[in-house]
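Why do we bother with holo predictions? Because pocket geometry can differ from the apo form. Keep that in mind while you read this record for 9D3.
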Amino acid sequence: MRIDVVTLFPEFVRQCAGFGVIGRAVERGLLEVEAWNPRDYAEGGYRRVDDSACGGGPGMVLLIEPLRKALAAARQAATGHVGQPAPVIFLSPQGTRLTQDRVRQLASLPRMILLCGRYEGIDERLVQHEVDEELSIGDYVLSGGELAAAVLVDAIGRLQEGALGDAQSAQQDSFSDGLLDCPHYTRPVSHEFGKVPAVLLSGDHAAIDRWRRMQSLGRTWLRRPELLGNMTLGQDDQRLLEEFKREHKGQAHEQGH
Ligand code: 9D3
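The structure, written out:
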C-alpha cells in the first residue's frame, strides 16, 4: 500500500510513519508513505498558500492552485506504482466519521492520497473537483488535518499483511468483533495494588477464554452500551453477559444501569 499525503507539514507526517509497528511496516516495504508540500507548488517569492476568506471574517483559506498542483504531483509520482487511480481523501471536521469498518476497506486498496487542511479550511471548489471522500476522526477540534492523516496511516498501516507479529494478528481476529478488550495482567501475581484474578493462573484455557469473553462483554455493556445495541449476541454471549451483570450489580448501578 502506498499513501501520499498533501500537507503543509510534510516532516510531521514522515516522522509519524517512522515508529513502532508502522515504522517496521515501512522498513519491510509493506507500506510506503510520501508527503507533498503545497508550498513547493506556490507562486511568487512569498510562496503564498492561503488568502483571506471571501465574504470576510477571521482566518485564512488555502488556495486552490498550490493544493491542486501538489495533488497532481502526488498522483503522477505514484502512477508507475499501481495502475488504478488513487482516491483523494480529505481529512476534515465535516467528513463522515472514521470507523474500523472503513479502515478495513481502505486498507485493502493499493494506494490513496490524503489531503490535509489548515487554518479555516480549503477552497470548497477544490473539494468539489478533486476530493473523492471526506473523513473526520471524531467530534473534537484539531488545528489541522495532519494528526487525522497520521491516525489513518497508523490504522491502515497496521492492517497490512505482515505488519503485526503472528501473536498480534491472531489476537486481532478475536477482538475485531466490535467489543471492548478484556483487562490484562502480568507479573507479579500479587502486588500492593492487588492480585491477578485467580482464573488467569488456573491453567484452564477454556475457563480463561470464557472469563475474557465475559469481561469484554461486560465492559462493553458498562462503558459503550451503544456498541452492543448494534449487534446480536449468541446464546453463550448472552449468558456470559447475564453472569457479568449479576456479579457487578453495584458497579452497574453507579454507572446508571
Ligand atoms: C476554528 C475553526 N473552526 C470553526 C468552528 C473550523 C475548523 C477548521 C479547521 C475546525 C477544525 C479545523 C481543523 N481540523 C481538521 O482539519 C480535521 C479534523 C478535526 O478538527 N476534528 C476531527 N477530525 C478532523 S479531520 C481534519
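The mean pLDDT is 94.
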